[in-house]
Automatic annotation (TrEMBL):
<dbReference type="InterPro" id="IPR036249">
    <property type="entry name" value="Thioredoxin-like_sf"/>
</dbReference>
<protein>
    <recommendedName>
        <fullName>Thioredoxin domain-containing protein</fullName>
    </recommendedName>
</protein>
<dbReference type="GO" id="GO:0016209">
    <property type="term" value="F:antioxidant activity"/>
</dbReference>
<feature type="region of interest" description="Disordered">
    <location>
        <begin position="29"/>
        <end position="48"/>
    </location>
</feature>
<dbReference type="InterPro" id="IPR000866">
    <property type="entry name" value="AhpC/TSA"/>
</dbReference>
<dbReference type="Pfam" id="PF00578">
    <property type="entry name" value="AhpC-TSA"/>
</dbReference>
<feature type="domain" description="Thioredoxin">
    <location>
        <begin position="63"/>
        <end position="223"/>
    </location>
</feature>
<dbReference type="InterPro" id="IPR013766">
    <property type="entry name" value="Thioredoxin_domain"/>
</dbReference>
<dbReference type="InterPro" id="IPR047262">
    <property type="entry name" value="PRX-like1"/>
</dbReference>
<dbReference type="GO" id="GO:0016491">
    <property type="term" value="F:oxidoreductase activity"/>
</dbReference>
Length: 243
C-alpha cells in the first residue's frame, strides 16, 4: 500500500481525541436522545431524500463541413437484401439513422421515427437505419431481433446490420439514436446537411415527442433552403463496440 493511500485511509479514521470528545457529547445528552452502543442510525424519514436513477447518456460529436456520405454495403435481416449507398441515388435527400433495439432513447422515439420517415419518404426522402451494436455484449440487438423490430414497428425504411462496425466508424457515429441528413448538391455522394437531434424529448423529461428539429431540417433539405436554426446534438446510448 502506498504512503499516500495509507495516509488517506488513516485520515478517515477517528482520532482518540475525537472519539473521546464524541463520547463526552453522547453522555451529556438526556437519556431519551442516546442510542445503545453499536446501534445503527435510524433511516431518514420517508420522503426526505430521493434517489434518481440516471441513464448513461452520450451526445453526438461534430462532423467536418463538407462531410459526404460514406459508401456502405449492408444486409437487411428482414429480407436478406444487401443495400448500398447507390440504392438511394434517385432520392434528393437521404436520412441515415443509427439505432438499435434495446436503447431507452431509441425506444422512446421508435413509433414517431417510423411515422416521420414514412411521411417524408412519400415526398422523396430516402431513409435507412443501421444497427452497429456488438451482439457479443448485447445479443438483444442481433439480426433476428432486428427483423422482429422492423415488423413490429412497421419501419418503412430498411433496417441494416453493421456487424463489423466499420460503417459506424466511417460515419463517426457514437450513439443511438444518431441522425445524419444528407442532400444532393450536384456532386457524388450526398453532402451532409443536418446532424442533430430528433427533438427535445427524452425518456427522462415530460417534453412531448414531435420530431420538430429533424422535420424542419428535412423540409429545408427537400426545398433547397438553408437550415434556419442551430442544430442541437442528439442524445442517446453509446454504440456498443466489440470488446
Amino acid at each position: 500500500m502506498s504512503l499516500a493511500v495509507a495516509g488517506a485511509r488513516a485520515s478517515l479514521l477517528p482520532s482518540p481525541l475525537a472519539a473521546s470528545s464524541s463520547r463526552a457529547r453522547l453522555l451529556a445528552l438526556p437519556p431519551r436522545h442516546r442510542r445503545p452502543h453499536g446501534s445503527l442510525a435510524s433511516p431518514p424519514a420517508a420522503g426526505r431524500r430521493r434517489l434518481r436513477v440516471r441513464m448513461a447518456r452520450t451526445e453526438t460529436t461534430g462532423v467536418a463541413v463538407g462531410f459526404r456520405a460514406p459508401e456502405f454495403e449492408l444486409p437487411e435481416p428482414l429480407t436478406g437484401k444487401l443495400w448500398t449507398l447507390d440504392d438511394f441515388e434517385g432520392n434528393p435527400a437521404l436520412l441515415v439513422m443509427f439505432i438499435c433495439n434495446h436503447c431507452p432513447f431509441v425506444k422512446h422515439l421508435k413509433k414517431d421515427i417510423a411515422k416521420l420517415t414514412s411521411f417524408y419518404m412519400e415526398k422523396g426522402l430516402g431513409a435507412v437505419a443501421i444497427s452497429s451494436n456488438s451482439i457479443r455484449t448485447h445479443p438483444q440487438d442481433g439480426p433476428e431481433r432486428m427483423a422482429e423490430e422492423a415488423k413490429l414497428f412497421k419501419y418503412p425504411f430498411p433496417y441494416l446490420y453493421d456487424e463489423s462496425q466499420e460503417v459506424a466508424k466511417a460515419f463517426g457515429a457514437v450513439c443511438t439514436p444518431e441522425f445524419y441528413l444528407f442532400k444532393k448538391d450536384g456532386r457524388r455522394p450526398f453532402e451532409l446537411f443536418y446532424h442533430g437531434q430528433f427533438d427535445d424529448s427524452r425518456p427522462s423529461n415530460n417534453v412531448p415527442v414531435t420530431g420538430r428539429d429533424l422535420s424542419r431540417a428535412i423540409d429545408c433539405a427537400l426545398s433547397g433552403q438553408e437550415l434556419p436554426f442551430v442544430e442541437k446534438p442528439s442524445v442517446g446510448c453509446s454504440i456498443k463496440w466489440h470488446p
